[in-house]
Design goal:
The chain has about 120 residues and is mainly alpha-helical. Helices cover about 50% and strands about 10% of the residues. Strand 1 and strand 2 form a beta hairpin. Helix 4 runs antiparallel to helix 5. The protein is flat and about 55 Å long.
Length: about 120
């Protein structure tokens, strides 16, 4: 499913559902889970995360991928879905961003995006 319009880049809405069994079509505005917009690799990560009951150490053992790499992927996935971990403050200050970068929980690109986003919020 395309999460954004390939022409203008704005979010797309689901407006029609069809049953291929009996050819019934229903039109309207439908809510779609943020999970529907994830790429297959991200969905596989979530499935493994759930199967390991959220235990990153177990995921590390099964996949051979390091804990901090897995933690970074989880952070990126949360950001991609627009979710904040429970207990995180509403606004991350820049020191927190640099701390996450130092611990390799986020990439340099992610850190720059967060700083840019926070700068834009201050200007609004």
């Amino acid at each position: 499913m395309l999460p954004k319009c390939p022409v203008c880049g704005k979010p797309m809405k689901v407006t029609q559902l069809k049953c291929v069994h009996d050819n019934v079509t229903v039109s309207g505005m439908f809510t779609v889970s943020p999970l529907a917009f994830l790429e297959e690799e991200d969905m596989n990560f979530i499935i493994l995360f759930l199967r390991s009951r959220g235990n990153l150490k177990e995921m590390e053992r099964v996949t051979g991928i390091g804990y901090f790499t897995l933690r970074g992927r989880l952070e990126k996935l949360l950001d991609k879905m627009g979710l904040k971990p429970i207990g995180d403050s509403e606004v991350d200050d820049q020191d927190d961003v640099f701390e996450k970068l130092k611990k390799k929980l986020i990439s340099v690109e992610d850190a720059l995006n967060i700083i840019k986003r926070k700068g834009g919020e201050k200007n609004e």
